[in-house]
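User: quick one, fold this
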Amino acid sequence: MVVAFGEQTSHYFNRLHIGVPEAIPLGPAAWRPADMADTRHWMVHLTDDHVAELESAFFEAVNSGIAMADLVASQFPLPSLAGELATWRREVTDGRGFLVVRGFPVESWGVEQTEYIYWGLGLHLGQPGAQNPEGDLLGHVVDHGDAGDLDAVRVYRTSNVIRFHCDGADMVGLLCLTKSASGGRSQIVSSVSVFAELLASRPDLAARLCESFALDLRNDADEVKHLPVRPVCHDGRRVRTFFDSDCFRSAERHESVELGRLDIAALDAWEDIAMRPSMCLEMDLEPGDLQLLSNHTIAHARTAYEDVPDLPKRHLLRLWLTISTH
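Assistant:
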């Protein structure tokens, strides 16, 4: 079953907040790049048997005439992958908050088969959801050459830098189909570690991030242009975050929104900490790599990139997943 855009967003932002924490209870989600130097901690590899099982499930479902959007998990059986999938979901939702799965043969599958298999796999991790009010199910992160007011465009449709942000679902998957000629490095950070650092160094700015900011929806045709969103929520046991630097800042283009000095200082400080080499983990996603991220404990970004004319463009498939509990 597909989760509607509004329902997915409402579920994601349904977070208890009791106040600014005095200290952060540090667990596996509060990591730093030095902790991740051994890629075996966070990169897993599909086996030939796993690939064969994915292909078998695909051909069985397609031969049954099931459209991708109508698919349910039982119609895409993955018995030998079940244990792996449970481990991946647990690691993203309750562990370090991210994982890279390597070895999807996307070049031999082609885009349409990859989309279907990716969707079927996602059904075993959570409930896939729409990524915009129009109901788009799989996002194509590729340079469409969108131009104009950069405060209003969807940056993932350009080759520009994407600053640290979270998406409006519990988990996001990014599956690399084609990499760019240069640039386009993935950057991720433990937002729990960033907030812990900010709380220790500038508690006044940390406290500001526990209050609402206006989030620019960038849907200028709609009546509602922005919504109040609390970047950091503390429920007494854990910290969960939502950060979107671009959309917090661009909200000021609306007449009713004005960022004060403390607001800007808090956003700047968060980004400054996140971009430190001691905090930000960078990686190159190769074709066939699937990056799974928790939008509650991880923020992700991307460096600018360049494609080469007459060669395939950098292309990632994005999947949003709702987890039944968070």
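User: anything notable?
Assistant: The longest strand covers residues 171-178.
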